[in-house]
Amino acid sequence: MLQEIFLDGQCLKVRGQIIHAFTPGEFRAKGVFETMLGLDGVVLGLSLHLKRLRQGLKAINITPPLIDQSIFEKLLVSNKLSCARVRLMVWQAGKQTHMMAVALPYKVSNKKIYRVCLVKTNRADNDRLANVKSLDYGVFAEAYSYAQANGFDEALLLNRRGHIFEASRANIFWMKDNVLYTPPLSSGCLNGITRQQVMKQAKILKIFVQERNLTPKSLKEADTAFLTNSLIGLKPIEMITA
User: Fold this and answer.
1) Residue 174 belongs to domain with CATH number
2) DSSP for residue 137
3) Burial class, 59, CB count within 10 angstroms (exposed 0-12 / middle 13-18 / buried 19+)
4) In this structure, are 121 and 232 located in the same domain?
5) pTM given for the model
6) Given CB 3.0 to 4.6 Å as the disulfide criterion, which of 72, 108, 189, 193 pairs with 166?
7) Could you say which DSSP state residue 222 is in?
8) 3-state secondary structure of 197
9) % of the chain residues with pLDDT over 70
10) Distant-in-sequence, close-in-space partners of 22: CB < 8 Å, separation ≥ 6
């Protein structure tokens, strides 16, 4: 089945195998990407995602290209998608910068709770590029594949210090004694768009928010915990395991 994508200023019709080859984790290059939710012709949080993309590109010394925001609406319409996973990638090959945007069918999960496992990584805390949504995505893709292969919905990632810094595709929050916690950026986590919105909304609701390093023991003792990202929104988690 042919799908329309946007590549380097052109709209092209390609097969799914081509799109899969450019999936973060499969495609390795110096660059960044953003994953967004498209609903009824609108990409949610588009300006925030584009801002983070530009910041990430500057951090790895790639000049951000000009992006026509209308291409996302055109992709949703041309691919006849009312609900879509929209991905924008910018990368460098030699001295040339490339940009690709795709919109893929997406079905919002009806699972009320995500089952999660723990996966150890070699991620350093205070990684200077931790807040870059990099195409060097192998550790996250491998953790997610491990979780899926073992009957879990997500994998919680441990850094070198044994702290949970995020999930393979999401940020993590937990509640304890009416305080909302989330790992600090210094733990190695990405400052997710939904993470930022949750923290902002919590403060509006006068819920005390604190950034704190998270251990598996602390998570098991939490009153509740949930994952956040732009596709799933907020999703409670259960079944923490080593």
Assistant:
1) 3.20.10.10
2) -
3) middle
4) yes
5) 0.93
6) 189
7) S
8) helix
9) 97
10) 89, 100, 102
